[in-house]
Amino acid sequence: MRLMIQKFRWKFIGMSITALFIVLVITLGTLLGISYTQSHNEVDRVLTTLVNNQGQLTPRNAKPVFGNQKDPINKNFLAGEYNPEAIFQYRYFTVASTKNNTPKIINDDNVYDVARKQIIGTSKQVFKDKVTSGSVNIGSNQYAYRVGKDSKGNQFIVYLNESLIYHRFSLLFRVSILLGLIALIVFALILILVSKKAIGPIITTYHKQREFITNAGHELKTPLAIISANTEMEEMLGNNSEWNKSTKEQVDRLTRLINRLIALARTGETGEVVLNKVNFSEIVKKNVTSFKSVMQKNDLKYNAMIMPDLYVKAERNILSELTNILLDNARKYCDRDGEVRVSLTKGKLGTNAILRVANTYKEGKGKDYSHFFERFYREDESHNSKKSGFGIGLAMAQEIVQTFHGKIHVSHKDDMIVFTVILKLAK
User: Fold this and answer.
1) Which of 81-90, 255-264, 322-331 comes out lowest in average pLDDT?
2) Rounded distance, CA 160 to CA 111, Å?
3) Catalyses which reaction (predicted)?
4) Packing angle of the helix pair 162-198, 2-52 (nearest 10 deg)
5) Fewer CB within 10 Å, N- or C-terminus of the chain?
């Protein structure tokens, strides 16, 4: 049970952290998207103003663009009221073409330490390629540029330092990542601290359920023992009828059910199960041999292949019960005149012991096996009602395997249903 509760607790923590992560990604992603779009549009507006005013940017000529925004994202609600002083934050310069096709730098008062040789070379290429807009790296900054024409029809290029404009987005991006990680870590720590209390009612309910099953099982054993004794007395007195035989069979079934319910309630308690190094091969071989007569009685082909001396960490009696459950399940649900196969081998990497118990089940192709390990689950009530079982054997097998830190799964191949148990080999 401790193992199950711990898994549930960590699953709860994991799902909660994942939910918060998704919320943070959506919230911060939206904020960053708006910030990036706003920066992009700001670059476009400043370049437009510079081109319209032949490379000059003043508080007066910038107002039509920054004071009367038509872009819904960048209206005053997000960008704020127009401030004439804001235009002095931009760094830009202008390059004009000359008659001899040699670019000339003009109006470079708003930049610092630009590589003039690189600017001339870049501008020559822009004029030559007849590119109207783009971005270039000059020094340690990135400049957006746009080509315009003055009143005389002469071309000029305005360059705007967009690195400074996008710096706000870059800063917001870094801060968002940092705050998001801090929020996830703090939330995870708080969740770890309070999760025990949060799942407390579940633990209490599970304990009460286990205690009820155990107590009810012991209480039911007494009347069953009396019924069994009375039935045997009737037989001794010569009243050996089919009704007495049916009563004994039902008493046996109820006894097995009670024993398995009690075992199922106890299996999950890892504190009550001491794991030791046990010979898995020896246990499987012994149980396979004990089922030989039962398989023959049911006219079933019975084959086993057991690799010797495979040791795993488990509890001997419970591991034996696991093998019995799978063999008994194969016997019950094998097709008439079908085959039961048992194999115990070493995994490909040599780190696991793999037990496979398969039986012929032609009707199983395409069926949903995802619920086979649920308690009291019966795949087909009308079909399985003819079989003796209560739907708890496979649930018990799964809890046993989980107690041994292993894996169990079911599949269907070549008209056979196969139950596979994987346990780590003991060193």
Assistant:
1) 255-264
2) 9
3) ATP + protein L-histidine = ADP + protein N-phospho-L-histidine
4) 160
5) C
Cβ-based burial of 310 (10 A; exposed 0-12, middle 13-18, buried ≥19): buried
Chain centroid offset of residue 225 CA: 49
**Whole-prediction pTM value?**
0.53
- Domain spans, the chain: 2-170, 200-267, 273-424
Domains 2-170 and 200-267 agree in fold: no
What pLDDT does residue 261 have?
Answer: 67
Residues contacting 72, CB < 8 A, separation 6+: none
Which fold does the domain 2-170 belong to in CATH? Beta-Lactamase (3.30.450)
- Fold classification of 200-267 (topology level): Helix Hairpins (1.10.287)
How far, in Å, CA of 150 to CA of 339, rounded? 93
- Domain 273-424: give its CATH superfamily: Histidine kinase-like ATPase, C-terminal domain (3.30.565.10)
List of residues 6+ apart from 169 with CB closer than 8 A: 32, 35, 36, 39
Element (H, E) at 267: helix 242-267
Distance CA 120, CA 223 (A): 104
| Amino acid present at 217 | G
SS3 of 360, please? strand
Q: What are the tens digits of pLDDT across the range 339-373? A: 999 999 998 888 999 999 999 988 877 777 776 77
Tell me the C-alpha distance between 164 and 232, whole Å. 97
250-254-256-261 Cα dihedral, nearest 10 degrees = 160
Contact 262, 217 (CB under 8 A): yes
CB-based contacts of 403, cutoff 8 Å, min separation 6: 3, 267, 268, 270, 273, 318
Q: What is the DSSP letter of 347?
A: -
- End-to-end, the C-alpha distance of the chain in Å comes to 26
